[in-house]
Amino acid sequence: MNNAAIAKRLIELRGERSRETVANACGISVSALAMYEVGARIPRDDIKVRLAHYYNCSVEFIFFVHKEHETCLKEKEVV
């Protein structure tokens, strides 16, 4: 996992919503959400699930860098 990529994705998903709105909906503090969005911390698994549910997407989409997975798939095809 790449903290910077996760942070960027979380900010993009939040869009125009305030941190307070998202934090309250997910049952976390505004400061915790801010730390996730600057890449200072990675949330616990249960919070990952809450964030994914709130944003209506998968945990994998938010917290796993797709480029790395695509690279692995390409290497498998070559073999």
* Strand percent estimate: under 5%
Look at the structure and name the CATH superfamily.
Answer: lambda repressor-like DNA-binding domains
Major sheet: none
Q: Outline the low-pLDDT stretches.
A: none
Class from secondary-structure proportions: mainly alpha
Shape: globular
* Count of the domains: 1
Distance between the termini: 25 Å
Percent in helix: over 70%
For the record, what CATH class applies?
Answer: Mainly Alpha
Give the helices and strands as they follow along the chain: HHHHHH
- In round numbers, the mean pLDDT is 87
Number of helices: 6
Total strands: the figure is: 0
CATH architecture label: Orthogonal Bundle
Radius of gyration: 14 Å
Q: And the CATH topology?
A: 434 Repressor (Amino-terminal Domain)
Domain HTH cro/C1-type: 10-62
Organism: Mediterraneibacter hominis
Protein name: Helix-turn-helix transcriptional regulator
InterPro entries: Cro/C1-type_HTH (IPR001387), Lambda_DNA-bd_dom_sf (IPR010982)
Describe, in plain words, how this protein is organized in 3D.
By secondary structure, the protein is mainly alpha-helical. The protein has a single domain (3-78), classed as lambda repressor-like DNA-binding domains (434 Repressor (Amino-terminal Domain)), CATH 1.10.260.40. Helix content is 72%, strand content 0%. The protein has six helices and no strands. It is globular. It starts with a helix and ends with a helix. The mean pLDDT is 87.
